[in-house]
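Quick one: structure for this chain?
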Amino acid sequence: MASVRQLGRMAWRKYNIDGASGSGFYKPDTVDIFPFTDAVAAAIDAIVVAAGAVAAKATKAALEAVHGASGDVGIVYAGVDAGIYIHNGSAWVFNRELPEAAAQDYADAAESAKNAAEAARDIAEGYASDAVSQGNVPIYGTFGGISGLTIPGGISGIIVNGRAAVGDGGRAFLKKVGAGPATSGRTQSADGAWWEVSDEVNMAALGGKDDNATNNTSAMQAAASLIPAGGRIVFPRVSATGVYLFTGGILPVNGLYLDVEPGVTLKGAFSRPQSPGENPGAVNHPKVIRRTRVIDTSTGTDVEMWLNPEYLLPLGQKPFFLGEGNLSRPRSVLLNPASDLVHQYIAWPAGDTWAAATPTTTAGTVQWPVEALNRFRISFRETRWAEQVDVSFSGDADAYLRAAAIRTTGGHYVFWADRETNALNIGYKATGVAAVTSAVTIPGAATHDSQKPQWALWGIQAINPFAFAVLINGVRVKVVQTIAPITHIGFGVYNTTTTPTLLGWRLLKSKSLFGVGQQRLLCHGDSTVADIYGGWPWMLRQLIEGSMGIRVERLTNRAVGGWSSADVLSDLQTNGINDSNGNLPTCAFIRVGANDIQAATSRLTYISNMEAIMDIFIAAGVPVVVAVPAMFYSQALGGGSGQATSNYYFGAAYRAALQQSIAAKYASSGLVFEADNISSMGHVLGSYKGSDPLAYDQILRDNIHQTDGGYHLDAYAMARAALDALAPETTKKAGRTLLPSSIAAAGMTLANTSSFSSDSQGQITLALGATFTSQTLSGTAIATLPASLKPAQTIILLGDAGNTTSLVRVIINTDGTIVATSSAACSVLNIRATYARE
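Got it. Here's what it folds into:
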C-alpha cells in the first residue's frame, strides 16, 4: 500500500458515477486534476469543522461563533449557559442540562480532537510546502478558476493549465504574492491569498489571443509589468490565425525578449522596430528569440517586416573576422570623353569594321547628332580588364535606342533598348559571320520605372579578358563568356531623331565580385536530381541565394526518376527550356547517365545525346552546369537492401567521355561548366552504409540514391560550378592566348604561335613572330596590337631576325603599332616583350 507521501505525489481526478456497472470507465465530473495533498487538506478542514461542532465552549457566545449545520451538537461547559445544544439550521438551541463531570469529559474530548485535527492540518500544510520545494507544484485547471479555490496555506507556487479553459495555451506558473489589485496577471483565491504570473510570461496566460481580432494591448502591458528588463514574453500559437493584434498606441517592448513561436505574427503600431545592434537605445527596441514576422500599422497602411535575433556577440563568439582577402579596393576614376574615349560607328547588322565618328564631347559628356543610317555610334574605353564603366542617358522622354557595345579581337556584341521596354536586345557579330540576336529581360522593368532603360544607370564590366557583364543599376542582367579577348567597352546610340547626351562617365578599376543579380535556375536529369525527400536543387538554391548579389527568382526541377539521356533530350526538344512564364533560365544544371550505364546504352549514343542537350542551352546563350553520372554500387554491396542495379562498374568510360565533351563545349562556347560531384563526395562505398557517422557517414540511402548528407555535397559541388558560370573571376590575368592574324601589317604574315599572356596585375608578356619578303627594314610596320594590349609607354627593344648578321630595332608605340628597323636584309622577325599597360 502506498504511503501518504507517495500518494501525495500522484495526480487525482474527480469522477461522477453515472454509468451502469460494467459499462466502461466512469466519466470525469471535471477536467481539474489535483494532487493528493489537496484532498488531504480538504478532509482535515472537515474534521476541524466537525470537531468544532461538538467542542465544549466556555460561553454560549463562543459556541454561537461556530458555524454549524442542522443537527450538529454543541456543548457549553461553563457558566449559566452550560448544557447541550442542537443546531436547528439557523441557531444553536438549548437541549438539556449537562452534568458538570460529563461536560468536562466532552470538553476534554472535543479539545483533544480539535488539537489533533489542527496538528494534522499543520502537518499536511507542511507537507504541501515540502512537496512544492521538491518540484511537485500543485496543478489546477485555469487561471479564471483560482478565485473559487481554497489553496493550502503552505503552498507558495501553483500551475494552471489554461487561462479560461484547460489547453487554451494559457498554461502558467503563479507565485504567492502580497495583497494587490487584480490584473491580467494577478488574482485572489478563495482563501484570501494573492497569486501572480511569474517566471516565463505567456501572453495567452494573461488573456492574449492570436485571433487577429482581440486587442492584446492590456495583456502586453501586464506582461511587461510582470518581468524585469531583459525578461521574456512568450507568444504561443493557439489559433489557426496566429496573429496577435495590438491597437491603441505604440507597444512597450523596449528591451524585452519576444519569444514568438513559429507561425505567429505580431500586428500593431511598432513605430519602426529596430534591428538589435542598429539602435539599442531606441524607444521601441525589442529583442527576438527567432526571426519574427511583424505587420506594422503605425503609418495607417499595413507594412510587413521581419525582426531578427540580435547578433551582438562577445569577441570569443564572433563567427569570423575580416581580413585582407575580404577587402574590396576598387578605384574610381573620372573619364574625360574628349580625351579618354574612342568614338566609332559600325553598320548594323552587316558591318565588321569600326570607323571613326565625331560626336560633340566635353570633359563629362558625349552628345550624338540626329542620324538615321542604321549604325551603332559608340564611345569606347580601350579596356584593361577587371574594370567597369558606368553612364546615364539624357532625354528621359525621348524615343531613341540607347546602346552598349563590347568589342573583341573576333567580333563585337551590342545591347540596345528603347525607353519604354523591359528587355535588352542582344546582338553578336563574329567577323565574317552573320549576326545573331536574342534578348534578356530586365528584372522589375515591367513594374518599376527605375529599372526601365531611360531611367536606369547603365554599366559594363570587363570582368576578365574573356568575360563581360552588362549592368542595370549596378546589377548584372547578362554575363557573357567570350572566345576572343575583349578590347573595348562603351556606350552610345542607334538611330536618333533627337540629340541625346551621355553623361556621368565613370571608370571603376578592380571592381569586386558582386551584383550578379536575379537568376532563374533549371535542373534536369534522373532520380539523382529529382525532388525526392527534398533533393539537392533546393539546397543549391539556399547556398547561392544572397551570395555575390544573387537573388534566385525561380527554381524549376524537371528531373524524373528512371530517365535516361535520351528521355531528357526528348523532353527538352519537345517542351523547350523556358519556364511556365515563358522566361529562359539564366543557368541550367544537368546530370543524367546512371540509367544509361545500367542499360548498357552505347557510349557513343550517350555522348551524342549529352552533346545535343548542351547544344540546346548553348544556342539559347544559357550557361549550363553538367555533372557526370553519379557513383553507385550493387544491391549486394549495400547489404541486400536498396534497388537492383546492373553494370555499376561500367561507368568510367561514360564519365571520361562526358568530361571530354564538356571541355570541348566550353572551349568552343564558354557556356558549359563541369560540376565535380564525384570528387566532392569522396569514395561511395557500400561498406559505409549504416556506419557510425563519426567514422564514415553514408552518402547513399540505398545503393544509388543520396542521403541528406549526399544531397548537401551534391548541392555544394553544383553551387561552386554555378558561381563560376554566373560570376566569372574578376581578374586581369590571362593564360597564353593566340593573337589574331588580322593584326599583321600589309606584307607581313603572323606566325601561328604569336600570343600574349597577362598576370593578375595586368602586365603583358608578348610573343610575336612575323615572316615577310627578304628586305632591310626601315621603320617598317609589322603589326598593330589589339587595344587592350597597348603599352602605357613606348617600348624599344631588340628583335631576333633569325640570323647572326642582322640586328633589328623594334619600337612598340602607345597606340599599339609595332615598327622595326634592321641593319641588314632579313625575312623573319621574332619579338619577346614584357610591359605594363597602365
